[in-house]
């Protein structure tokens, strides 16, 4: 006999941990299922070790699903890594901890597109409830939430110089809080990290429970289990079946929080998706819906410049010394995000909000890309890497089943760079980076361009390199889109119910009709808070 709870949540990632905690706090019984294992390892919890995680395939394999894209027809048929966390906290346990809400216009656009209840004013309370901002609470920022948010500390002189130079070059202000009144500007990054600890949703929302404290005895967190499908009977979700044949029943609702890949895959395995595609795999159709469409993702293109003032060296001895110093006295680069600065600026194609994000990373970066599953070599000298980032891609792709086997990886085809506008914006970003690095405010500290390098001397030379160097920021969204009843593109109602199936919802970044303007981890956690409020409000 399997377990039973009021709510069964599949996926203990950035959204699922939040949702599980809030539903359990209401008094409901909750079972939270996670395919990965514990996040109680320094590799996850020490913020700066993310650099080690991404650089050593043997370590990455322990916490990553190991997905790759299908060959990308508009990006030289490259097969691009699609890193997703397989661990408590999900991708929020293996990301760079960059905390960006997005532009307020993003949420107003959702509401205008038929997602009632998701405007900026609607979601602002959910953002505030989640965060504990180092400057304290305001009308726009939260101060008592479980996720501690701090500015980047002990900034390298190289980053400081770039922030000044970008402000002048792009004609923007230095912005003390891009998550506040206005996003546009040149800023220090905000990070979901504090005191040498990563504040993932697992840390912020589950630590007291996982530690064995009796605060929420009605919440059961089960790791190391893989869900095969949602059990649907007479148009109603009754629970889930695991790959070992065990059934876990839900008396109220099943909620999928398995991410843009996992939630869409599980719906299709359960008979919810495009009817013709499901028929190809012998899956009986419970609801013919456009699951797996609307897949899109941020892309960035790294450019590295030799700068002694960037301080950090990509060598094993340097990493080892940092780990030792952190363990002895703390307050080193190992205890915070490796990213330091950011710019939200407008390209020549922009309208009324920034469409280009510049990530500032005071480390070297492998070039031309990181497609191969190997340990990539990085120039050991101190370098400043600027990552021009496409935050509003026009290209749209799909996620589809490879087979009816729930353990088989899905077919992930983001259709990167299919839209000419996407390639154009990345080129604009590269030119802005070069123009900024030539500014008198920073150029004296630059001893050379490493990547792409001086042989790519102008825009014409850079243009073909976009196809080889642009890569994912690991922010897939949109595959289980919410929208109005009249919208044939939508899978979910605005209260996140799956159309045509009772007692089944989805809550994670797959619900986004369009991607937010910036890193998606903060919006993912907000979705958890907002979904809980929708479920618990009569």
Automatic annotation (TrEMBL):
Gene3D superfamilies in the cross-refs: 3.30.410.40, FAD/NAD(P)-binding domain (3.50.50.60)
Pfam families: GMC_oxred_C (PF05199), GMC_oxred_N (PF00732)
InterPro entries: FAD/NAD-bd_sf, GMC_OxRdtase, GMC_OxRdtase_N, GMC_OxRtase_C
Domain Glucose-methanol-choline oxidoreductase N-terminal: 85-108
Cofactor(s) this protein cannot do without: FAD
Cell membrane is among the record's keywords: no
UniProt keyword list: FAD, Flavoprotein
Family: Belongs to the GMC oxidoreductase family.
PANTHER family per record: CHOLINE DEHYDROGENASE, MITOCHONDRIAL, GLUCOSE-METHANOL-CHOLINE GMC OXIDOREDUCTASE
Official protein name in the record: GMC family oxidoreductase N-terminal domain-containing protein
Species name: Actinocorallia longicatena
């Amino acid at each position: 006999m399997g377990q039973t709870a009021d709510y069964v949540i599949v996926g203990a990632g950035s959204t699922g941990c939040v949702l599980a905690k809030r539903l359990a706090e209401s008094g409901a019984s909750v079972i939270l299922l996670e395919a990965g294992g514990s996040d109680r390892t320094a590799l996850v919890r020490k913020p700066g070790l993310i650099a080690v995680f991404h650089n050593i395939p043997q370590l990455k394999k322990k916490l990553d699903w190991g997905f790759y894209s299908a060959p990308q027809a508009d990006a030289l048929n490259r097969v691009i890594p699609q890193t997703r966390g397989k661990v408590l906290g999900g991708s929020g346990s293996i990301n760079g901890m960059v905390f960006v809400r997005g532009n307020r216009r993003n949420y107003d656009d959702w509401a205008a597109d038929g997602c009632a209840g998701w405007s900026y004013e609607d979601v602002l309370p959910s953002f505030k409830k989640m965060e504990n901002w180092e400057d304290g609470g305001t009308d726009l920022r939260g101060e008592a939430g479980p996720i501690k948010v701090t500015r980047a500390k002990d900034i390298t002189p190289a980053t400081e110089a770039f922030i000044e130079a970008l402000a002048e070059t792009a004609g923007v202000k230095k912005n003390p809080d891009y998550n506040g009144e206005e996003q546009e500007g040149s800023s220090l990054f905000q990070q979901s990290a504090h005191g040498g600890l990563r504040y993932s949703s697992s840390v912020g929302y589950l630590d007291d429970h996982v530690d064995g404290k009796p605060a929420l005895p009605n919440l059961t967190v089960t790791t190391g289990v893989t869900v095969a499908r949602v059990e649907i009977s007479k148009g109603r979700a009754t629970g889930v079946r695991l790959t070992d044949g065990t059934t876990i029943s839900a008396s109220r609702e099943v909620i999928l929080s398995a991410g843009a890949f996992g939630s869409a895959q599980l719906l299709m395995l359960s008979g919810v998706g495009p009817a013709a595609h499901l028929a190809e795999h012998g899956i009986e159709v419970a609801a013919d819906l456009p699951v797996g469409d609307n897949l899109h993702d941020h892309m960035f293109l790294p450019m590295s410049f030799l700068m002694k003032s960037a301080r950090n060296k990509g060598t094993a001895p340097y990493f080892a010394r940092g780990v030792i110093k952190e363990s002895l006295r703390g307050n080193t680069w190992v205890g915070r995000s490796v990213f330091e600065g950011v710019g939200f600026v407008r390209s020549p194609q922009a309208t009324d909000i920034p469409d280009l994000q510049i990530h500032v990373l005071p480390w070297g970066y492998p070039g031309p890309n990181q497609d191969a599953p190997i340990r990539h070599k990085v120039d050991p000298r101190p370098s400043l890497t600027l990552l021009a980032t496409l935050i509003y891609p026009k290209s749209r792709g799909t996620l589809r089943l490879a087979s009816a086997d729930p353990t088989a990886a899905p077919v992930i085809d983001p259709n990167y760079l299919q839209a000419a506008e996407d390639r154009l914006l990345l080129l604009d970003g590269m030119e802005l980076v070069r123009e900024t690095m030539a500014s008198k405010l920073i150029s004296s500290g630059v001893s050379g361009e490493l990547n792409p390098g001086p042989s790519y001397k102008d825009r014409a030379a850079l243009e073909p390199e976009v196809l080889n160097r642009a890569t994912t920021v690991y922010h897939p969204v949109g595959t289980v889109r919410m929208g109005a009843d009249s919208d044939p593109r939508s899978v979910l109602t605005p209260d996140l119910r799956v159309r045509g199936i009772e007692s089944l919802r989805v809550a994670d970044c797959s619900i986004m009709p369009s991607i937010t303007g910036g890193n998606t981890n903060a919006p993912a956690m907000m979705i958890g808070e907002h979904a809980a409020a929708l479920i618990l409000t009569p």
